[in-house]
Design a protein that fits this description.
This is Adenylyl cyclase-associated protein. This protein is α/β, with parallel strands linked by helices and 471 residues long. It contains 10 helices and 14 strands.
Length: 471
């Protein structure tokens, strides 16, 4: 009996020594300094890039130019994420400041892509914007728990792609009958994330990255004071994808408007900022002032007065029932994510902006907007487009009714679940409806008639749309 017990003990010790020789600690985790590049999750990431990443790269090579440049940056961002995943297996979980510093290499690549969409609008703006917005999916690596303010990793990847899909669909529609290389690139980019990255995260990191319990500590960059006599630092860069500081509340911002005036009056120092008007500054003594108003001055005054009529930009929930999105100009990343089926969304006076509504709402109204894009999931009652010019609306879920009134130029993207929607148009022109036509993500475009023939037959008028046929 004792001999058998000794044999079992010796066998157990031999197994422990073998595990130790392979670099496995008593906790079952890789020890510091051990090469984790052969870990199954890392090898699966290599397979992801070899399959889906290679398709995007091959399609971009056929196009070249800025599309190839932005594709290389996208693949660089994935390569950086692989390096971070390797480091995570050898690093202890950091605090928020340490996490921001840890993810800094990934954020730098993302900022490079975003910089390509700034400045003069490129002919490939939709390619650049779609690629740039898609990289927010890589932020799943920053998920640290249910209280971190992010969706779960799988849901985060899917939601991030929905933001980029708006521009990706534009590429598919624009080049569908012009250049199949662009169509191939757009499809490959989508497959890189769905199903590529999504399935990878689902298989290996459904609850977020797993940090090492006994690894090295992540370092956070200390703030260094500038040396005496050094020039002032440059202004801060644009907001990055990862930030350890929450947005500043409105109460901490400097007062504006009448609040600032009353605060200045109560301080008793009202005239400190006033300038003294000398004799040569008075209008009656200035030679450059005449009684004739030039045409340029009239134009300037009219444009300034029209601008002043527009109120300040607004994106807020009013009385807990209505989301007000007003006077947004040039904002491509507007998001409403905390909504429910009892709330409505009213979009007014926006221009050259994109709004994404993540969740089911009761009603959506788009009023007096120009070059506005709206992406929503589900609507209970209706989506209404009124008094607009050049708007695009995409339904990713279901919508029983869509109405377009007094609008010039409107593109409606319908999902498979919203093909049964009732579309009503009145006093509108250039209305196109795009519907999915196949499993490859192709879109079929249908124009709604805007001219009708009314004929009196059998005691009543019969109305039929005008049909045009080419010679």
């Amino acid at each position: 009996m004792e001999a058998k017990l000794m044999e079992r003990l010796e066998a157990a010790v031999a197994r422990l020594e073998a595990l130790s020789a392979c670099g496995i600690s008593e906790r079952g985790l890789p020890e510091i300094g051990v090469d984790v590049s052969s870990d199954p999750s890392i090898l699966a990431f290599d397979d992801l890039m070899a399959d889906y990443g290679a398709r995007v790269s091959a399609a971009a090579e056929k196009i070249g130019g800025q599309v190839l440049d932005v594709t290389k940056l996208v693949l660089d961002a994935f390569s950086v994420q692989k390096k971070l995943l390797i480091e995570i297996k050898k690093t202890q979980k950091p605090d928020m400041a340490g996490l921001v510093e840890f993810l800094k290499p990934l954020n730098e690549v993302i900022l490079k892509v975003n910089a390509m969409t700034e400045g003069r609008r490129s002919d490939f703006f939709n390619h650049l914007k779609g690629a740039g917005d898609s990289l927010s999916a890589l932020a799943w690596i920053a998920y640290t728990g249910k209280d971190c303010g992010m969706s779960m990793p799988i849901a985060h990847v899917e939601e991030s792609w929905q933001m980029a899909e708006f521009y990706n669909n534009k590429v598919l529609v624009e080049y569908r009958n012009k250049d199949q290389n662009h169509v191939e690139w757009a499809k490959a980019l989508k497959e890189l994330y769905l199903p590529g990255l999504r399935d990878y995260v689902k298989s290996h990191y459904p609850l977020g990255p797993v940090w090492s319990a006994s690894g090295k500590k992540a370092s956070s960059a200390p703030l260094k004071a500038p040396p005496p006599g050094a020039p002032a630092p440059p202004p801060p860069p644009p907001a990055s994808l990862f930030s350890s500081e929450p947005p500043q509340p409105s109460s901490s911002q400097p007062k504006q408007g009448m609040s600032a005036v009353f605060q200045e009056i109560s301080s008793g120092n009202v005239s400190s900022g006033l300038k003294k008007v000398t004799a040569d500054m008075k209008t009656k003594n200035r030679a450059d002032r005449t009684g004739v108003v030039s045409a340029s001055e009239k134009e300037t005054r009219s444009s300034s007065s029209s601008f002043s009529k527009a109120g300040p930009p607004k994106l807020e929930l009013q009385m807990g029932r209505k989301w007000a999105v007003e006077n947004q100009i040039g904002r491509k990343n507007l998001v409403i994510d905390d909504c429910d089926a009892k709330q409505s969304v009213y979009i007014y006076g926006c221009k050259d902006s994109v709004l994404q509504i993540q969740g089911k709402v009761n009603n959506i109204t788009i009023d007096k907007c120009t070059k506005m894009g709206v992406v929503f999931k589900d609507v209970v009652a209706a989506c209404e487009v009124v008094n607009c010019n050049g708007v695009e609306v995409q339904c990713q879920g279901s919508a029983p009714t869509i109405s377009v009134d007094n609008t010039s130029g409107c593109q409606l993207y319908l999902s498979k679940d919203s093909l049964g929607a009732s579309i009503t148009t009145a006093k509108s022109s250039e209305i196109n409806v795009l519907v999915p036509t196949g499993p490859d993500g192709d879109w079929g475009e249908h124009s709604l008639p805007q001219q009708y023939i009314h004929a009196f037959k059998d005691g009543q008028f019969e109305t039929t749309p005008v049909s045009h046929s080419g010679a």
